[in-house]
Amino acid sequence: MNDNYLKVARLAAAAGAEILLSYQGRFSVREKAPRDLVTEADVAAQQAIQKILLSNFPDHGFVGEEEGHDQVSAEMLADPNHPPIWIVDPLDGTVNYVHQLQSFAVSIAMYHRGELQLGVVHDPVTKEIFWAQRGGGAFLNDCPIQCSQSDRLDQALLACSFSAGVRHDSGELDRFAAALDQAQAVRRLGSAALNLCYVAAGRLDGYWATCVKPWDVAAGAVIVSEAQGEILSLAGEKFDIWDPRFVATATKSLNDQLRRCLA
Ligand code: IPD
Ligand code: CA
Ligand code: CA
Ligand code: CA
């Protein structure tokens, strides 16, 4: 693949990260829906990222969480000749960011010919940049990373994400309770993208979500796969970025156990 894609994705992620840091503690916040926040920084970072990507690749598609860029048409996906589509979350972990909890990231992925081709997740606070290109392995800054060897659910450290509107009587909590019963421990860190990168780096053994959007997990999904992890739909089928309800784990055996546990 064109190495320039990765270079520009990393530049765009760094520009977004710088904007997030520059706004910290000083931004307006509004609710898109109850408990679903967006700040001025989310929007400014997305605008800067979009400008960098599309000025370098004017014919490419762009999907981003904010400002009405959140749709991709069925025709775009069905067309094998459609130019690459960038999938961007300018700030994954907005609630953490608003509360000055230092766990959030910029997430940029590229999708082309039915596959995710690359992913970059940039943590502005720790300066950790997780990245991968399809077939090229996964990296943290300049070092190759790999998932853990974990293949026992009772010894696994897991994380999961809930939707902003999660309710006590939803299936999301039933799955959480089942995992609490069977895993070593379960965390909720507040950034889907970072959760996936932590699986890729061996810091977590597994992560699942049933309510996230493509931009939350597109970059992290490539990074986990390239770190030798297993990412499958909840039903055990090929992961589909346009329907991201999935289980990502260090090993195939752990994936089987966790999917059975969540079923
Ligand atoms: C959210 C985070 C969170 C997950 C939510 C996402 P945002 O993304 O990834 O971990 O639980 O479902 O919406 O809104 O902070 O970009
Ligand atoms: Ca959001
Ligand atoms: Ca997100
Ligand atoms: Ca976001």
TrEMBL record:
<dbReference type="InterPro" id="IPR000760">
    <property type="entry name" value="Inositol_monophosphatase-like"/>
</dbReference>
<protein>
    <recommendedName>
        <fullName>Inositol-1-monophosphatase</fullName>
        <ecNumber>3.1.3.25</ecNumber>
    </recommendedName>
</protein>
<feature type="binding site">
    <location>
        <position position="91"/>
    </location>
    <ligand>
        <name>Mg(2+)</name>
    </ligand>
</feature>
<feature type="binding site">
    <location>
        <position position="65"/>
    </location>
    <ligand>
        <name>Mg(2+)</name>
    </ligand>
</feature>
<feature type="binding site">
    <location>
        <position position="216"/>
    </location>
    <ligand>
        <name>Mg(2+)</name>
    </ligand>
</feature>
<dbReference type="GO" id="GO:0007165">
    <property type="term" value="P:signal transduction"/>
</dbReference>
<keyword id="KW-0460">Magnesium</keyword>
<dbReference type="InterPro" id="IPR020583">
    <property type="entry name" value="Inositol_monoP_metal-BS"/>
</dbReference>
<comment type="similarity">
    <text>Belongs to the inositol monophosphatase superfamily.</text>
</comment>
<feature type="binding site">
    <location>
        <position position="89"/>
    </location>
    <ligand>
        <name>Mg(2+)</name>
    </ligand>
</feature>
<keyword id="KW-0378">Hydrolase</keyword>
<dbReference type="InterPro" id="IPR033942">
    <property type="entry name" value="IMPase"/>
</dbReference>
<feature type="binding site">
    <location>
        <position position="92"/>
    </location>
    <ligand>
        <name>Mg(2+)</name>
    </ligand>
</feature>
<keyword id="KW-0479">Metal-binding</keyword>
<dbReference type="GO" id="GO:0008934">
    <property type="term" value="F:inositol monophosphate 1-phosphatase activity"/>
</dbReference>
<dbReference type="GO" id="GO:0006020">
    <property type="term" value="P:inositol metabolic process"/>
</dbReference>
<dbReference type="Pfam" id="PF00459">
    <property type="entry name" value="Inositol_P"/>
</dbReference>
<dbReference type="GO" id="GO:0046872">
    <property type="term" value="F:metal ion binding"/>
</dbReference>
